[in-house]
Write a sequence for this structure.
């Protein structure tokens, strides 16, 4: 198994491998991980559009998520915006089509597809695969990918030359002995950071399912922030109190706004 050694030896402090690719039409990030949850718990937790909204809202840029049933299938309405409090009307809305693309007693695959995204991006795909493992564990594969046109590349260049100028991803591109590692930057850094944020949201949600229902929201908010702070160079954005206050308000808002 080509991932066996990287899963055992990596800088993440958990059995996890992150890979990213930049190509002419867009970007993709993949995470492969061994998760400490039985397959049944992963399947019951993730094979639900409403649960996906509980996952999505943990991401610092998600302002709103609501699952609706339409004649052609289930849609997740998701507003993506700033890393600070923001009115829904000011955060671009995306519509992800939810589909269970494979299901067996020991494997499932769920795909979220969105045709259009903000700032000239398109063809978003979030795909989660899970496989049952022995000893009450599961193997997870998360893909986060999207297309970038000319407008999107220009917008990304502006971001990377201003607010994102000092941000890096997780892939080490230079590890000279005795010197600090050099990490991938640019658009690959962007996709790696977001892929990790979504994976940590899934992990935090699954862990929260072990708690009493009334305690789950607070548990996963705290868990997600603690998880991203393990990688401050890549993922630190705001202080814990600010994140928690923002997310509590956003969760409350999506209970009352359609």
């Amino acid at each position: 198994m080509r991932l066996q050694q990287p899963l055992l030896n990596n800088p993440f402090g958990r059995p996890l491998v992150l890979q990213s690719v930049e190509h002419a039409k867009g970007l993709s990030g993949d995470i492969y991980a061994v998760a400490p949850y039985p397959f049944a718990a992963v399947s019951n937790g993730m094979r639900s559009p409403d649960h996906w909204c509980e996952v999505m809202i943990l991401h610092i840029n998600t302002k709103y998520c609501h699952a609706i049933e339409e004649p052609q299938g289930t849609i997740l309405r998701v507003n993506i915006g700033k890393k600070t409090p923001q009115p829904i009307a000011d955060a671009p809305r995306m519509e992800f089509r939810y589909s269970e693309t494979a299901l067996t007693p020991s494997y499932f695959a769920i795909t979220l597809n969105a045709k259009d995204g903000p700032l000239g991006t398109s063809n978003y795909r979030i795909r989660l695969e899970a496989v049952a493992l022995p000893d009450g564990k599961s193997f997870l594969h998360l893909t986060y990918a999207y297309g970038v046109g000319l407008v999107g590349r220009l917008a990304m260049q502006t971001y990377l030359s201003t607010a994102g100028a000092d941000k890096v991803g997780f892939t080490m591109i230079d590890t000279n002995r005795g010197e600090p590692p050099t990490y991938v930057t640019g658009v690959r850094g962007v996709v790696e950071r977001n892929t990790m944020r979504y994976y940590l949201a899934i992990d935090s949600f699954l862990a929260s399912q072990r708690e009493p229902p009334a305690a789950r929201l607070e548990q996963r908010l705290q868990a997600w922030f603690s998880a991203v702070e393990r990688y401050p160079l890549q993922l630190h954005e705001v202080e814990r109190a600010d994140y928690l206050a923002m997310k509590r308000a956003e969760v409350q808002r999506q209970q009352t706004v359609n």
In short: The chain is about 35% helix and 35% strand.
